[in-house]
Amino acid sequence: MTRSSCEGVSMSASTGTAKGGGGALLPRGEQEITDQSLNRAVSNAKRLAQGDLTNLELLRSPADIQRRRTVLNQAYQECERITGIFAKTFYLGTKFMSPVARKAIWAIYVWCRRTDDIVDGPRAMVRGKKSLQKDLEDWSSRLEDVWEGKPRDSLDLALVDVREVYPTLPIEPFKDMIDGMVMDVPGIGKNRYKTFEELELYCYRVAGTVGLMVLPVLGTAPGVSEEDAKFPALSLGIALQLTNILRDVGEDAVRGRIYLPLEDMEKFGVDPDNIMNGILDDNYKEFMRYQIARARFYYQQAARGIPMLAPQARLPVQASLDMYSKILEVIENNNYDNFRNRAYISKVEKLLTLPFSYLRSLNPGKIDLNIDESEFKLTRFDKIDMVRETFPKDLEEY
Fold first, then answer.
1. What secondary structure does DSSP assign to 276-329, as a single string?
2. Which domains are delineated in the chain?
3. Which ranges of the sequence are coiled-coil (predicted)?
């Protein structure tokens, strides 16, 4: 199941998209409701886009401008509705943003959600890998049309508008997320990762990319460039995705997937078959302690980047970091049993976290997660010019 992280990421977003957006396996009835909601949204988008939306970008008569404004307002309302359904925690965070910024974030989230749905939605279940590959190629081509101001429906139009408002919004992370979806396609992608470097690439594509998508929207502090803030944004996306993976070990095993690195399992004496069978022993607990420490290491790097953000963006990012990192505490409190006990934070706990997040956002960058940072190394994402150029060539096939 795809795990894009739009929903949990405000600096980065919980993609979150269903594994793709918050990552939970939903009960059948609830999954059907959310699937129907997205299908209805796409139908509404097509209905709103009756006529040639491309002409709305080319013609500037008063009638065209008024129709564009009407369709655009309705599109943003639909983006808000979809975000509220699929990514409740993420949606709450957007309420602390300016009206312009929150609309942009909703539009980006919906694009991520629709991307995830290509490989994780009901239609994907009955399509072969070649058909899914073709769908993703078509989606990539459609993305390029959006960047050229040629929307095909009203949800596309919302993203076109975001591009106009935030001209530094890069297309590369959107394309990289599509590549991340490919990594989860059965028969094409991977259901095992040998090394953390391989897993890190996956985490970048499905979650770190979101940090690069939303960074121009969040803005940076005076004297700080977007380039300066890239590494912390990527770190938060990777931290959130690692948290998703740790939370969902049992659910993923049911689907025949193990995301955690095989080299780490060997180091701690954990047999992959034991994970598939949900065996909780001392070796597995030590293995989990190490994985949780690694996720916290990335949260640490992300926290140091919060002062780089524009002041109005710091609270939603701090809240995202605080709420999601608490999932790691729940896993610990569950005695590392993520086979039978799903770690989650209740709505009440999230609300109680907000005042502390607010205080931290006033003096950002300081966080004590009680880990030995010397145990982990900064990744190849540090001090980069173009993140997508830093990956080893032998990983690019995935």
1. HTT---HHHHHHHHHHHHHHHHHHHHHHTTGGGB-HHHHHHHHHHHHHHHHHHH
2. 18-395 (1.10.600.10)
3. none
Question: Which residues sit opposite 309 in a β-bridge?
Answer: 220
CB-based contact 248:22 (threshold 8 Å):
no
d(CA 218, CA 113): 20
pLDDT number for residue 126: 64
Helix, strand, coil share (%) of the chain residues, nearest 5: 65, 0, 30
- What's the rounded Cα separation, in Å, for the pair 69 and 67? 5
Q: Name the least confident of 184-188, 328-332, 345-349, 355-359.
A: 184-188
Q: Which of 398, 271, 278, 266 is nearest to 337 (CA)?
A: 278
Give me the residue label for tokens 């939903």.
26
CB 312, CB 388: distance < 8 Å? no
Q: What angle do CA 175, 178, 181 make, to 5 degrees?
A: 160
pLDDT at 350: 87
**What sign has the CA pseudo-torsion 255, 261, 262, 266?**
negative
Q: How far apart are CA 282 and CA 275, in angstroms?
A: 13
pTM value surpassing 0.85? no
Give 278-299 pLDDT, tens digit per residue.
999 999 999 999 999 999 999 9
Q: How would you classify residue 278: left for phi > 0, otherwise alpha for psi between -120 and 50, otherwise beta?
A: left
- Angle at the Cα of 229 from the Cα atoms of 390 and 371, rounded to 5 degrees: 85
pLDDT digit string, tens, across residues 201-241: 999 999 999 999 999 999 999 999 999 999 999 999 999 99
pLDDT at 365 over 70: no
